[in-house]
Amino acid sequence: MIIKVCGMRVPENIRDIGTLDIDIMGFIFYPGSPRYVSENDAGRDAILAAGKKKAGVFVNETPEKLNGCARRYRLDYIQLHGNESPGTCETLKKQGYSVIKAFPVAAKADFKLTENYSCCVDYFLFDTKCVGYGGSGKRFDWHLLDEYKGDTPFLISGGLTPDCVDDIRLLNHPLFSGIDLNSGFETSPAVKDSVKLKDFICKIRSLPSDMELT
After folding, report:
1. Which of 9, 70, 122, 171 lies at a CB distance of 3.0 to 4.6 Å from 75, suitable for a disulfide?
2. Is residue 24 within 8 Å of residue 54, measured between CB atoms?
3. Would you say the pTM of this structure is higher than 0.70?
């Protein structure tokens, strides 16, 4: 199972979380987020030294800004949360990035929006639909995942907390590939509780699973 921890910014916290058994560390380059990493952020050295795959989170960003951040922080994944087109995703893949496209979910019909992206992204990320961009800290109805009939693997986000292990255990969709952890493990915006994360990750890693990072 892929474990991604998103919304990192503080150098010491980046170093602490980087020692855990996670696959991807996420950094938010959307100015509207309280976890925003600015171009002049002092944590660049810590990000570069994180020792994990790095994902940059963007919302309707210009190609210039997106590519500049990707180069500056040596990103492996580009995670898109806005109205980015399939063409944009395809271009990023041709540039050598893995692409995660986020879709907010509240009803069966929301999965229809994924169809045009199935050939140009590596993963979908299903999150809770809310006003504006960014997470709500709430979980959507995971039973809706049964309505997803596509062939692109997906991660889930939204409302994931240390108490979710048993619920994750019950998810048996064949394309469920991992989880994206953020505010449910924070002591304050962009600061993750390493003890809670370590305990949670140990429990998740002990679940029977054949899901691996690709």
Report:
1. 70
2. yes
3. yes
